[in-house]
Specification:
Order of helices and strands: HHHHEEHHHHEHHEEHHHHHHHHHHHH
Strand content: under 5%
Largest sheet: 3 strands, antiparallel
Distance between the termini: 53 Å
Number of helices: 22
Structural class: mainly alpha
Helix content: 55-70%
Strand order of the largest sheet: 3-5-4
Length: about 425
């Protein structure tokens, strides 16, 4: 055996407040959003979202807020996961229920708001969406400079960095002019001045948006990260460092290959690999890629994809919730949501109906049959909710899993009891021929 050195747990920069103090600051930033979420979710605005004109007026009167504060609080409540909309019905999010007792839930909610800063503060009108998107993509470099400076940074310095990063993005996308290189003319100089003016407008918008979510404070010609903002940027920089130290070397692989590479890892190293892979790519595209793999035919990858989504956490919730209606993903999605909302993993199975649990049993058996050992498939019988093999076979036939026949054939071949194996083979034949 060899002992592999593990990277020591990183420590926040000196001077970073403890989590309890950071959570207190996050609760202050989201105080109005929490009040509005309670008002909406406790039945004060039954059945409809509180941004209808009538509900907005009632919320403003009940909470002593202006209509503008109600709108802002509502946006923050949704983005921070304090409320969930199911059609026109408002339900409390799990974070709202845990808000006063769980500092980690509070910090995750604030980070979700921080990540969505560009939605909190409307972009300047008249600017193309692609230009705005470039500015949003360049902002992490601006935040890194603020974090590394550990103090106020002048707006001109931030503007210069933003302009450099936007130019790099253009170059990376090969957005260069074709044809002969002409000498600089007054027109090109004017174009450069226009670009600087546009970047200045976008920088002001970005700084105001980040200030609106409590990530930084603005002074006369300078900006400074708040303790919350400093901590959040440090966390994201650490994620990049983890990505650079991908323990099993799967960071550059597509999702399916990465998951297969993790299949024989124990849970701890597998989660480390998931984190490294996720930190190296935008969270939205990573979640979409994992869901696409889960929709495939390989049951092992389906289960592993949801294990990786557990590492993603809050940003994956809307996508996972959206696939609950997909028969092949529903059991996995329900278990994911139950654990995400605080259920013990050992008790999460209770959210599944008998049919859903049976479907999941077959899907897991398919993964074992494709990738596991014979003994594992036989032992998998013990995890069925039915308790007896005849009852299991009856209900397996009813759920209509596409791999039912293959699973039963593999189980019959693997089981050491001839009588039971014969019964399983008979069930496989009946499913195959449509008999009973």
């Amino acid at each position: 055996m060899t002992t592999r050195r593990t990277r020591p747990a990183p420590r926040p920069p000196e001077g970073t407040p403890p989590p309890a103090e950071l959570a207190r600051q996050a609760r202050t930033v989201l105080a109005d959003a929490v009040r509005l979420a309670h008002w909406a979710a406790d039945g004060a605005g039954p059945g409809t979202a509180p941004l209808t004109s009538h509900a907005l007026e009632r919320a403003a009167a009940a909470l002593g807020l202006t209509p503008a504060q109600v709108r802002a609080g509502w946006d923050r409540a949704r983005l921070a996961g304090l409320v969930e909309l199911h059609g026109d019905t408002v339900r409390p999010g799990w974070r709202l229920r845990a808000w006063e007792r769980d500092d980690s839930a509070v910090l995750r909610g604030w980070v979700a708001l921080f990540d969505a800063w560009s939605l909190v503060h409307a972009a300047p009108r008249g600017i193309e969406a692609t230009t705005v998107a470039e500015a949003v993509e360049a902002v992490p470099q601006v935040l890194s400079l603020l974090q590394l400076s550990a103090g106020p940074v002048t707006v001109p310095a931030l503007l210069d960095l933003l302009g450099q990063r936007v130019a790099e993005l253009h170059e990376e996308r090969c957005e260069v002019a074709y044809g002969p290189h002409l000498p600089t003319t007054p027109a090109t100089g004017r174009a450069a001045a226009d670009a600087t003016e546009l970047n200045a407008l976008l920088l002001d918008w970005a700084l105001e948006g980040l200030a609106a979510v409590g990530a930084l404070t603005l002074g006369a010609g300078h900006a400074t990260l708040t303790p919350l903002g400093n901590w959040a940027v440090w966390v994201k920089l650490e994620q990049i460092c983890v990505a650079a130290q991908s323990p099993a070397g799967n960071i550059e692989q597509p999702a399916a290959d990465m998951l297969l590479g993790c299949a024989r890892l124990t849970p701890g190293p597998a989660r480390a690999e998931y984190r490294a892979w996720l930190a190296a790519r935008p969270v939205g595209s990573a979640v979409a890629e994992l869901i696409a793999v889960a929709r495939g035919e390989d049951a092992l990858l389906r289960g592993l994809a949801f294990e990786a989504l557990r590492v993603v956490g809050a940003p994956a919730e809307p996508v996972v919730r959206s696939v609950v209606t997909d028969a092949s993903l529903r059991p996995y999605a329900l278990l994911w949501l139950a654990e995400y909302e605080g259920a013990d993993p050992d008790d999460a199975q209770e959210v599944l109906s008998r049919e859903e649990a049976t479907w999941l049993w077959v899907d897991t058996a398919a993964a074992v049959a494709d990738h596991g050992e014979t003994g594992l498939l036989v032992r998998h019988l013990d995890s069925a909710v039915q308790g007896t093999v005849p009852a299991l076979l009856d209900e397996i036939r009813a759920v209509g899993h596409p791999r039912t026949v293959q699973v039963l054939v593999a189980l019959a071949a693997a089981h050491p009891d001839p009588a039971l194996a014969k019964a399983v083979r008979r069930a496989a034949f009946q499913v195959h021929t449509g008999g009973v």
